[in-house]
Amino acid sequence: QVQVVESGGGLVQTGGSLRLSCTASGLTFDDYRVGWFRQAPGKEREGVSCISYRGKTAYYADSVKGRFTISRDNAKNTVYLQMNSLKPEDTAMYYCAADRTGWGLRWDAYNYWGQGTQVTVSS
């Protein structure tokens, strides 16, 4: 049974940093691409970043380019999202998703989802 668990969210001031972690079990982790998504109240879920099987390729939403960095450690079955220079508009529930063939920042490309971790950026 595949499980995806996010952690690392919290409350931070504008300009601060957080590192989110996404750990998966029940799968051969390096056979899966992973994406980070977020959803703020009243808004649609949007793609933030995604990373390829070995971490050689990554994409970012324009809104986070230059501020967020995605990485993965396949030995730990974990993908990280380092978030710097946080803004109030980054406030959202952040979700991690994994898929063997899905790719990109469309949420419907991924089959396995975590429950999310809340990120709140105060102004």
Polypeptide structure, described:
- The chain is mainly β and 123 residues long.
- The chain is 0% helix and 50% strand.
- The protein contains no helices and eleven strands.
- Strands 2, 4, 5, 6, 9, 10 and 11 form a seven-stranded mixed β-sheet that branches.
- It is globular.
- The N and C termini lie far apart (40 Å).
- 31% of the residues are buried.
- The mean pLDDT is 97.
Short summary:
This protein has 123 residues and is an all-beta fold. Helix content is 0%, strand content 50%.
Helix/strand/pairing category = mainly beta
Q: Kindly state the mean pLDDT as a whole number?
A: 97
SS elements, strand count: 11
Report the oligomer: single chain
Radius of gyration: 13 Å
Major sheet: size, sense and barrel closure?
Answer: 7 strands, mixed
Q: Whole-Å distance between the termini?
A: 40 Å
Estimate what percentage of residues fall within beta strands.
Answer: over 45%
Helical residue percent band: under 10%
Q: Count of DSSP helices?
A: 0
- H and E order: EEEEEEEEEEE
Overall shape: it is globular
Poorly predicted parts: none
